[in-house]
Amino acid sequence: MELKVALIQTNLYWENPTANLASLEEKIAGISENVDLIVLPEMFTTGFSMSPSKVAEPMNLTTFKWMQQMAAQTKAVVTGSFVAKEGNRYFNRLLWMEPSGNFDFYDKRHLFRMAREHESYEAGSKRIVKEWKGWKICPLICYDLRFPVWSRNVALEYDLLLYVANWPEVRSHIWSTLLQARAIENLSYVIGVNRVGEDGNGIPHSGDSAVVDFKGEVLVRKSNEESIIIHTLQKESLSAFRERFPAYLDADEFLIH
Fold it and tell me: For residue range 176-201, what is the model confidence (pLDDT) as tens digits?
């Protein structure tokens, strides 16, 4: 069983949803192969903005409808995070949009305090695991990558761990290392999709978007350029490795409060 994924590593227009949606729509239209999953970066409509009142949208508005349209046209799941508004509260919200229009969302649990994200946004409290084309997929956001307990694959509840990010170039080594660590410890494929270019605060991003297999081996990685990475994951090799090396059976039990 295969899952063909498209990782869109792109520069972002600062706090300009209209320009970003137009640019991403063009990139998605340029994908010449049939894919099952299209992954966009964190805050793909704005960049990593700490001014949510300027750029936030309620659900069911422009970005939501755009993702519905993209998923329907490509017959693929489209996912990535945007700035969502509920009343007077703001969330860094990953939207999971299926071609049928069915959707789910995940609100970022770990807010990046070094950028004061926790002062502008509210933290999520629950993960989601989505089933698609026979694969179980757990999507998370950027800073979540640093927290292995939250990312933990309890009883093999997922096959693919997914991170969307705006991860600065200065910490690119940490990004790449942790993607491999999460794959090894969770006996899972891991995908990380990061932006490139300089944001509105003058912070450069090198991308380093990657697909990592269940042994921590990097199958593909792109740095310092806009790129659409297309890669096919193999379920049979994952299942075979888990059978040969069932380390998850010896995992420590725990509860998250």
Answer: 999 999 999 999 999 999 999 999 99
56 vs 86: CA distance, rounded Å: 9
| Distant-in-sequence, close-in-space partners of 226: CB < 8 Å, separation ≥ 6 | 9, 10, 11, 196
What is the CA 214 to chain-centroid distance, rounded? 18
Q: Can 136 be counted among the known catalytic residues?
A: no
Q: State the catalytic residue, choosing from 98, 130, 142, 222.
A: 142
Active site residue 108: yes
Encode pLDDT of 212-231 as tens digits: 999 999 999 999 999 999 99
Residue ranges with strand state E in the chain: 2-9, 37-39, 77-86, 89-97, 103-107, 130-132, 135-141, 160-165, 189-194, 196-198, 204-212, 218-223, 227-234
Decide yes or no: CATH 3.60.110.10 for domain 2-248: yes
Q: Which of 15, 42, 98, 117 is catalytic?
A: 42
Residue type, 130: K
CA separation for the pair 163, 190 (Å, rounded): 8
